[in-house]
Amino acid sequence: MNTTNNEATQLKRVQEVALNGEEPPLNYLSKDKPTTEASSSSSIPIIDLHLLLSSTSTKEKEDEIDKLRSSLASWGFFQAVGHGIPSILLDKILSTMKEFFHLPMEEKQKYSRVGEDGTMEGLEGYGNDTVKSEQHILDWCDRLYLLVKPQERRTLKMWPESPKHFRETLHEYSVKASLVADNIIKVMAQSVGLEENSFLSQFGKSAPMYARMNYYPPCSRPDLVDGIKPHTDGGGITILLQDKEVEGLQVFKDGEWIKVPIVPHALVVNIADQMEIMSNGMFMSPMHRAVTNSEKARISLALFYVPDLNNEIGPAVGLIDDTRPRLFRNIKGKDYVEFFTKNFLQGKRAIDWARV
Ligand SMILES: O=C(O)CCC(=O)C(=O)O
Ligand SMILES: [Fe+2]
Questions:
Q1: Which of 14, 298, 300, 340 has the most ligand 1 atoms within 8 A of CB, as the residue to mutate?
Q2: ipTM score of the complex?
Q3: Which residue, by CA, sits nearest to atom 9 of ligand 1?
Q4: What one GO molecular function would you report for this record (predicted)?
């Protein structure tokens, strides 16, 4: 195959690059390194969904709704407990993912996103960063990316048949997590005085949900690379299941990076750009990143819930008034995703494009 060095390294999974334990290759060296130290001084809020979604109206519940609103305004992040997804299922999806990433490369490559001729076949499947230029700095991370919803649009040939329970476990987890996501989006609307379907109706009934399984191999020089570069998510909301033992997620708040600690069996929820737009800036889509370490591999499973690409989304009418003028234009979901992807690859923020 006639490839440049850059392309050749791209075709190698990070897991293979990491195997030799040597210094990371040049095209992984992050521009902003050495990595700024993160602080654990303050911790992102923990929200009890069971309390939030209970049908009785109590002072405790009202307080929790207030806490949700202020968390989304100042952090754009929270740890959801009381979500009702059995711990045993959370453990199972994490261990199943780990098993997949530990399979021989040949087996994993059956689901590869890169076609045999070296071209990218599409978004879904196993792979790493899409490289658009020689200057592109790669993340220290391998991924398996799959559409999980709507079910009839799944690309089953990209769903691993090994490990044995992979498909049914991802199915079960994504069905449950998507119900949790719907409920969170309803209560987000209520928290700012809107009717519960105000945001959800903008997502639409066929809103896609993507699963991105991240695998960060250990790195001999974690200070020189990004697990995932600083970014905001481009969809509506993201539900993230973190590794149970290895920390790595950080959020940028008030000028510093803050570690997102592991809360056993909690789901990390974050606002993504299109929800910031729908909330007319009441909720913030936070900048976050993942770092690696030299000892242990880390995994995470992000579920991106994205408004239907054919829908027009925009600030909810009830959130625009004289004191709070419209901050964003109405835009087509598809246009935003396209613009976001282009900017993401160049390390730029896309949301400013949608500002009035
Ligand atoms: O691995 C993590 O904790 C973060 C992953 C993430 O931000 C993403 O996949 O968008
Ligand atoms: Fe993210």
A1: 300
A2: 0.99
A3: 302
A4: metal ion binding
Buried b / exposed e over 223-251, threshold 16 CB at 10 Å, is ebbbbbbbbbbbbbbbbbbbbeebbbbbb
User: Quick check: 335 and 253 in contact, CB under 8 A?
Assistant: no
Ligand 1 atom at minimum distance from 270 CA: 7
CB of 300 shorter than 6 A to ligand 1: yes
pLDDT single digits (tens) 282-300: 999 999 999 999 899 999 9
The neighbourhood of ligand 2, an ion, using CB within 5 A, equals 233
Q: Does residue 229's CB lie within 6 angstroms of at least one atom of ligand 1? A: no
User: How would DSSP label each residue in 30-98?
Assistant: -TTPSPPPPB-SS---EEEHHHHT-SS--HHHHHHHHHHHHHHHHTSEEEEES----HHHHHHHHHHHH
Q: Whose CA is nearest to atom 3 of ligand 1?
A: 249
pLDDT in tens, 45-88: 999 999 999 988 899 999 999 999 999 999 999 999 999 999 99
Q: What's the predicted TM-score (pTM) here? A: 0.92
Instruction: Write out the residue range of the structural domain in which residue 107 sits.
Output: 5-354
Q: State the closest ligand 1 atom to the C-alpha of 227, by its place in the atom list counted from 1.
A: 1
What distance in angstroms lies between residue 301's CA and the mean position of ligand 1's atoms?
7
- In the chain, the number of structural domains is 1
Whole-number Å distance, alpha carbon 229 to ligand 2 midpoint, is 9
The ligand that comes nearest to the alpha carbon of residue 303 is 1
Element (H, E) at 313: strand 312-313
- Nearest-atom number in ligand 1 for the CA of 260 is 3
- Could you tell me the CATH number of the domain that includes residue 162? 2.60.120.330
Residue 293 burial by CB count (10 A; 0-12/13-18/19+): exposed, middle or buried?
middle
Query: Crossing angle, helix 59-74 and helix 166-191, to 10 degrees?
Result: 100
